[in-house]
Amino acid sequence: MTDKLTGAAGRQYVAEAIRHSLSSGDLSPGQRLVENDLAESYGATRSAVREALQDLAAEEIVEIVPRRGARVRAVSVDEAIQITECRSALEQLCAMKAATRASQEQRTELRQIGAEMRQAVADGAVHTYSILNQRLHELVVEASGQEVARRQLDRLNGPMVRFQFRLALRPGRPAQSLQQHLAIIDAIAGGDATAAARAAAAHLEDVIEQLRSSAAMPSTPVPTRV
Prior knowledge:
about 230 residues; 2 domains; 10 helices
């Protein structure tokens, strides 16, 4: 019999597995997360699952209801817009810093990501584009050297994962966001801090507009990098 995952390794594995299930659409807002079922599915001990759920609750991805257990936290469109507004301020800061602080290797990688994003859109490779999109945002933050912003963005992005998944699958969305991402890349790679901040702001403003149009009633909870 194979030993079950436990301790810090088990805790991290289960948390990552739940995040992946959210981003792939396998889990829905309000869905119950039963410790025994999760332990069986992920080959982990119940203690590892319980600790992972506590970590996700701290990130506001999961909510733990007394005497009822854990469930995926539903995020309204209104809250998603407010989160994105906060993201915008932080991502503008990171883009601006990255334009002046990025190494030559990072600037080269940014340009390569841009070329691969163009190809992914041409090929209709939505999943590939999504992965490149995520790496782009991560690289901008890395290049900025802004660790405080990185921690805050990680926290803000957690509750948004299903919104991001839904918007990323909207027909024509990769082609629409491609030019926005290329503008960010060009500005950072070219060392133009003002243009980098402006491009990041324009991209996040478009995300907000997409969120506003994602539901007939802005305050209605709906399934949740774009």
